[in-house]
Amino acid sequence: xxxxxxxxxxxxxxxxxxxxxxxxxxxxxxxxxxxxxxxxxxxxxxxxxxxxxxxxxxxxxxxxxxxxxxxxxxxxxxxxxxxxxxxxxxxxxxxxxxxxxxxxxxxxxxxxxxxxxxxxxxxxxxxxxxxxxxxxxxxxxxxxxxxxxxxxxxxxxxxxxxxxxxxxxxxxxxxxxxxxxxxxxxxxxxxxxxxxxxxxxxxxxxxxxxxxxxxxxxxxxxxxxxxxxxxxxxxxxxxxxxxxxxxxxxxxxxxxxxxxxxxxxxxxxxxxxxxxxxxxxxxxxxxxxxxxxxxxxxxxxxxxxxxxxxxxxxxxxxxxxxxxxxxxxxxxxxxxxxxxxxxxxxxxxxxxxxxxxxxxxxxxxxxxxxxxxxxxxxxxxxxxxxxxxxxxxxxxxxxxxxxxxxxxxxxxxxxxxxxxxxxxxxxxxxxxxxxxxxxxxxxxxxxxxxxxxxxxxxxxxxxxxxxxxxxxxxxxxxxxxxxxx
Length: 485
Known about the structure:
alpha/beta; seven-stranded mixed sheet; 17 strands; globular
């Protein structure tokens, strides 16, 4: 019997509703609709803080749920939400939001991070959490709220991450847990015990009475008003994407979840919290079934997305496919930048910021559109190479393959350059990996699949994967470019 499952997959640029249709042998994903989550300058509140318009996002989610129920003929088997990490909302005792959730790119978080690190040595935070230091981690977000509006924290009854907030709404307030994969992004979770490290908040004078129970992927959280079961997938979108990696027993494979952010790493059975891992900016985020997503953050296609926004403001409208084609046609040997640099997190104008970075390193400025986008894509490929090399050293063995999942799989130019730069075969797919992993987790939770390995097997049987092999003639070019990154 055919079953239908709704994955609500929210990214920092857009959200989508994907209907998963399982006929007993293959899973098919069908897009029901998309909506913008980030509206750019419009998200700047009257207090000067960047906030998510949560009520608008909720209305979009409600509409997609209604559409999915109609498409499934009233027999929707489940619904679950995944999204980016670190961002959260605070509820009062009646379950109402005290304020709109703050966006992770808000400038206040970097200031708060500096204050926190003056109070707590980096080594203490790293040993307690195993999470890389990023200014938007929830630890620093809470410190920023304490400095800006301490009354909000005092009045808070429960902190829920963005997907958990939507599960709370979907279940009429019944769901009040934070799913573990997203909780792990906060830099407040002990990766060994899975418990909150409230001692870190004590040391900076931030309350924590609002930190509640931590749940697991696959758990049933309740039902919608119409009786649809609500399941927690791996609510961090990268966690869901890794569930959908179509690995089939290969030895030593790495993953690259490519979208607004690029997350490059390996799936481990235990955390790796060493000085060398910290030096390479790797992170121990939670995965399903007790695994650790040992990974690092790279700016990702955010570079291209924001350059596109810059070009649009200047009157040049281009699709992503057109931008990739222009990059491929641009001359080789152009400038590259550090695609992990914090200066690219939230610049006012990405194109100008990239050109400034090139000038500061004595490189020619990428003035044409093709040269600008080529700079972005080649910089990403070189960042992947550098981080993959560090990951191999930490793992103690070379990788045989790189599994690339997510929206970035559609950028064939970047995929080929990634294979060339890394000197590894790249298996690209599925495109909607986070949505696929979301549905698979629901199916595991409902007992429609026996476990996580069967979920991965189903993914491999259901979705196309495109292979990219390193181009021998390109090896020297990437060797020459590598030291410049």
